[in-house]
């Protein structure tokens, strides 16, 4: 177990591993409110170099260089494999090399068990690790209004609280490592089911010749209402699938929830059908569309 550490303050140096849409905007937000974002790293080196130039940071080649440069490291990587790679304790290029006293805040949606592994490995290296699962999108990352669900030790949470508060408008400590990731998996499972259901409702309405703007208004005032209707309904109607949360990520996250269901001995037919739809979209080469792109499978003459 690592020794108690002082809370993060804005004088604390920040490094970011994974500077895609979410990671880059978290870095911009923290820079805006006064943190020193000193180093960034990504498998897409050009993206890291571009962001580093914007923020006055250094683009480095390995996660280990992020650990060396920063007191607090934020990770936003793609999946379980990427998370295990950057936290590989055998790798001289990994985050755990020289990690004594460091704080890792892990924001990616990965399997709960991976967050538990990362916390254990971090503690063995003398560091602290926290999962900060995001239930928001790109504009909220940029504005510092994320909804964050946090899992890890209370000590790590209190240490990280200042930076988490600067990233979010709502901060919920869920419990031990893996528990926030479980909640996030369920959030995305239900969101994805709602998205698939809305696509089918609007697709059928279109096939019946109904006015979809009127239909969306009726949905919004009845039991068919949902947050997804607000964020994705018009985009489905207009075929505007600029990405905020990709179909590929939706497929991955539905898979995480189904793995949890299988471990619990449950069968979830709606979640399984939804994942199949998102998998179809990915297989058709449209995985980088927003999740609203699932409507391309349900409207006539689109797929």
Description:
This protein folds into 2 domains: 13-177, NAD(P)-binding Rossmann-like Domain (Rossmann fold); 182-297, Orthogonal Bundle (N-(1-d-carboxylethyl)-l-norvaline Dehydrogenase, domain 2). It is of the alpha/beta class and 303 residues long. The longest helix has 29 residues, at 179-207. It has helices at residues 21-32, 45-55, 63-69, 80-86, 112-124, 138-143, 154-167, 179-207, 212-220, 227-238, 247-264, 269-286, and strands at residues 13-17, 36-41, 58-59, 72-75, 103-106, 128-134, 146-151, 168-175. The chain is built from 12 helices and 8 strands.
Query: Whole-Å distance between the termini?
Result: 54 Å
CATH topology category name of the largest domain: Rossmann fold
CATH class of the largest domain: Alpha Beta
Strand order in the sheet with the most strands: 3-2-1-4-5-6-7-8
What's this entry about, in short?
This protein is an alpha/beta fold.
Q: Could you give the topology of this structure?
A:
Layout: E1 13-17, H1 21-32, E2 36-41, H2 45-55, E3 58-59, H3 63-69, E4 72-75, H4 80-86, E5 103-106, H5 112-124, E6 128-134, H6 138-143, E7 146-151, H7 154-167, E8 168-175, H8 179-207, H9 212-220, H10 227-238, H11 247-264, H12 269-286
Parallel strand pairs: 1-2, 1-4, 2-3, 4-5, 5-6, 7-8
Antiparallel strand pairs: 6-7
């Amino acid at each position: 177990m690592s020794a108690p550490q002082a809370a993060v303050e804005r004088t604390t140096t920040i490094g970011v591993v994974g500077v895609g849409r979410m990671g880059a905007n978290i870095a911009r937000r923290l820079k805006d409110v006064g943190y020193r974002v000193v180093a960034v790293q990504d498998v897409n080196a050009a993206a890291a170099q571009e962001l580093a130039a914007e923020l006055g940071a250094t683009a480095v080649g390995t996660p280990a260089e992020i650990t060396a440069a920063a007191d607090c490291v934020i990770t936003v990587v793609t999946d379980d494999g990427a998370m295990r790679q950057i936290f590989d304790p055998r790798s001289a290029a990994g985050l755990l090399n020289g990690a004594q006293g460091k704080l890792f805040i892990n924001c990616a949606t990965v399997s709960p068990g991976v967050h538990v592994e990362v916390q254990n490995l971090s503690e063995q290296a003398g560091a602290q690790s926290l999962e900060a699962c995001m239930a928001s999108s790109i504009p909220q990352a940029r504005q510092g209004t994320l909804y964050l669900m946090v899992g890890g030790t209370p000590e790590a949470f209190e240490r990280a609280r200042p930076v988490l508060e600067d990233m979010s408008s709502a901060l919920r400590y869920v419990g031990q490592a893996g528990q926030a990731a479980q909640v996030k998996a369920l959030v995305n499972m239900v969101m994805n089911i709602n998205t698939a259901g809305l696509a089918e409702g609007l697709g059928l309405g279109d096939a019946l010749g109904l006015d979809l703007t009127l239909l969306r208004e009726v949905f919004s005032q009845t039991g068919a209402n949902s947050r997804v209707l607000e964020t994705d309904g018009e985009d489905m109607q207009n075929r505007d699938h600029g990405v905020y949360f990709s179909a590929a990520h939706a497929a991955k996250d539905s898979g995480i929830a189904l793995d949890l269901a299988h471990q619990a001995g449950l069968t979830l037919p709606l979640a399984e059908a939804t994942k199949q739809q998102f998998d179809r979209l990915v297989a058709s080469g449209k995985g980088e569309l927003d999740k609203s792109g699932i409507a391309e499978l349900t409207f006539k003459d689109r797929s």
